[in-house]
Specification:
With about 400 residues, the chain is of the alpha/beta class. It folds into two domains: about 200 residues, 3-Layer(aba) Sandwich (Rossmann fold); about 140 residues, Rossmann fold, CATH 3.40.50. About 40% of the residues lie in helices and about 20% in strands. The strands form two sheets. It has an eight-stranded mixed beta sheet, sandwiched between helices. It has a six-stranded mixed beta sheet with strand order 8-7-9-10-11-13, with helices on both faces.
């Protein structure tokens, strides 16, 4: 990855801002309900609704005044999926003449709140956030919206433009691939490990799809259904190592690529990796793609959610917002199963998301956009857990 502009380490917000950030984050993380944040702006759209398709020819409105032409990424951690978002955002910022900054939280929710407060105080015009803890970050993102800035979020609200995947369809795509493999190669019998993220309500449907699909196979036993902590490669390794102590014979492992890659490392370390296993993930991470390419390797599939492509699109929308243009209120990143037949094109798209965005047919393979919003209609920001699967 290239170097980035960052929130300066020596810059500190006022004690008031730090106090608000720390109290908000720590109180909510502790599960307390005593803290009440005063509402000082419109609440946005809080009742779930279905958005019409995005109209790229919607009228231009006002450009937000008094904001810096800066795009910032409040990044939760350094997993490859988020590195892809960073790559796409940075490319879009460069192409549109925006300064780019990255504020890495390293899974520290309180730090992310403080980072966003710093960006708000600096009058940064556009922020994309991958929240560590959505509840603790929510009010700070609203403050950016109320100040006229663009806020794009990866899955949870609030946002002027929210990105999600059709989560149940994403989980079903991976499960269907696993079921076909179990029936074709394992005689319909398998011990399965699900590495979940059920603690994040917005991602829970993908794991519901896995359970729904697998329960139809009488020869399948789910020997573990657990959320690694943390949800990264190291967490996957530790969780799988523990599972193997009780269940040494595992045939199928499903989850996000980052944790399934950790599970693969644990299987290899324990001498339990086999060519006939099915390890499958979600996100299309580069390391997972490399594993899929290996002949007779356990890693058989990944469901692509191309993060550089949607990162580039969000960066373009941020630049459009700052110019007073209308942008989507919501956007799907569409799942697709990676196979040996399409890996070459997928890797080319990862490397050059601008080419994808500028080619409508290729862009529509990855993205679907809904609704319209601009600075003048910013009170209509998304403040409910939007999904295209909600009818």
């Amino acid at each position: 990855m290239q170097s980035h502009g960052r929130v300066p380490s020596g810059f500190r917000p006022s004690r008031v801002l730090l106090g608000l950030a720390a109290t908000l984050a720590l109180g909510l993380l502790a599960g307390t309900t005593a803290l009440t944040v005063a509402q000082d702006g419109p609440p946005g759209i809080t009742t779930p609704k279905v958005f019409a398709p995005f109209d790229p020819n919607a009228p231009v409105c006002s450009a937000p005044p008094g904001l810096e032409k800066v795009l910032a990424f409040a990044q939760d951690n350094e997993r490859e999926f988020m590195q892809g978002v960073d790559h796409g955002l940075e490319m879009a910022a460069k192409d549109r003449g925006l300064e780019y900054r990255r504020a890495l939280a390293n899974n520290d929710a309180a730090k992310m709140v403080s980072d966003v407060q710093l960006l708000l105080a600096s009058k940064v015009g556009a922020i994309v956030a991958a929240p560590v803890d959505p509840a603790s970050l929510s009010h700070s993102l609203q403050e950016v919206i109320w100040a006229g800035g663009y806020v794009g979020t990866i899955v949870p609200p609030p946002a002027t433009s929210l990105l999600n995947a059709p989560q149940y369809a994403t989980g079903k795509a991976l499960t269907d691939a696993a079921i076909a493999y179990i029936n074709d190669h394992l005689g319909g019998n398998a011990n399965v490990v699900l590495l979940t993220q059920d603690q994040i309500e917005f991602l829970a449907p993908r794991f519901a799809a896995m359970r729904d699909g697998l329960k139809g196979l009488p020869g399948v036993t789910i020997v573990a259904d657990i959320t690694p902590n943390p949800v990264n490669k190291e967490g996957g390794f530790e969780t799988m190592s523990t599972i193997l102590q009780a269940h040494p014979d595992v045939d199928v492992v499903l989850g996000a690529d980052t944790v399934v890659l950790g599970a693969l490392a644990a299987l290899q370390a324990a001498g339990k990796a086999r060519p006939d296993q099915f390890l499958g993930g979600i996100d299309g991470e580069p390391e997972a793609v490399s594993e899929i390419k290996k002949a007779d390797g356990p890693y058989k599939a990944s469901i692509s959610l191309s993060s550089p492509v949607f990162g580039y699109a969000m960066g373009q929308h941020a630049a459009d917002w700052l110019e007073g243009k209308s942008i989507p209120q919501a956007m799907d990143i569409l799942p697709s199963a990676l196979t040996s037949d399409n890996l070459a094109q997928y890797e080319a798209d990862l490397a050059d998301p601008a080419a994808v965005y500028n080619d409508p047919a290729r862009r529509d393979y990855y993205l679907k956009m809904y609704g319209n919003i601009c600075y003048d209609s910013r009170d209509q920001y998304v403040n409910f857990p939007w999904s295209s699967e909600t009818k």
